[in-house]
Amino acid sequence: WAPVRAHVHDGVHPRQSGKRVERARCAHVCSRRVLTAPLRQLFVTGALDESVIVRGLRHYPQDIERTIERADRRVHASGAAVFQVGDVLACVVEVAGVRAGGLFDFGDLLNMVPSITNAVLNEHAVVLHVIALVPAGTLPRNRRGQKERMIIRASFEQSAIKTLHVAYNV
Q1: CA distances from 155 to 68, 132, 150 (A)
Q2: pTM to 2 decimals?
Q3: Is the pLDDT of residue 45 over 80?
Q4: Taking phi first (over 0 means left), then psi (-120 to 50 degrees means alpha), and beta for anything else, what does residue 152 get?
Q5: Going edge to edge, which strands form the sheet with 41-44?
Q6: What pLDDT, on the 0 to 100 scale, is given for residue 56?
Q7: How many beta carbons lie within 10 A of that of residue 71, not counting itself?
Q8: In the beta sheet, which residues pair with residue 91?
Q9: pLDDT at 96 over 50
């Protein structure tokens, strides 16, 4: 972590009143990725190349992914990847209990889409334009088990991911 002086970030500036820093709006916009030090320094964490910007506000995909994972019990643990393709906000969601080539209830999959869409809309005030449901174990991960969002995004753009269902919210 390197100390960075507080500055205007995404149009939000933490106002200083005396010795305390009012950061309610900044913490909401930066989605709990902003920490303030007692020396009036601002630390911003998270990879900027993975962040998504919707209507001028920066969102971190980890926060939206956690919301998706809590939205429906059928979402595989740590099985959501959110990324931006142009102006479109897309996510790939692993469905728990469904393996590639296995049997699944299509109606059950269709019921997942509105619950995911509503949860993200209520918590983050953004609309997921594309939701792709994939079998569990489809998302590529590195050696530490972390999702490779850039590889997932490239595979999605090239239609290289085998999907169970793709929903378009336009």
Answers
A1: 20, 12, 9
A2: 0.68
A3: no
A4: alpha
A5: 4-5, 41-44, 34-37
A6: 80
A7: 21
A8: 82, 131
A9: yes
Q: Which long-range contacts (CB under 8 A, 24 or more apart) does 57-66 make?
A: 57/10, 57/29, 58/10, 58/29, 58/30, 59/31, 59/124, 59/126, 60/30, 60/31, 60/33, 61/149, 63/31, 63/32, 63/124, 64/91, 64/120, 64/124, 64/126, 65/91
Most confident of 29-43, 52-66, 86-100, 110-124: 110-124
Distance of CA 23 to the CA centre of its chain: 22
Q: How many CB atoms lie within 10 A of CB 135?
A: 21
The enclosing H or E element of 89 equals: strand 88-95
Crossing angle for the helix pair 61-71 and 106-124, to the nearest 10 degrees:
130
Nearest to 32 by CA among 63, 53, 11: 63
Task: Determine phi and psi for 112, rounding to 5 degrees.
Answer: -70, -35
101 CA to centre of own chain: 27
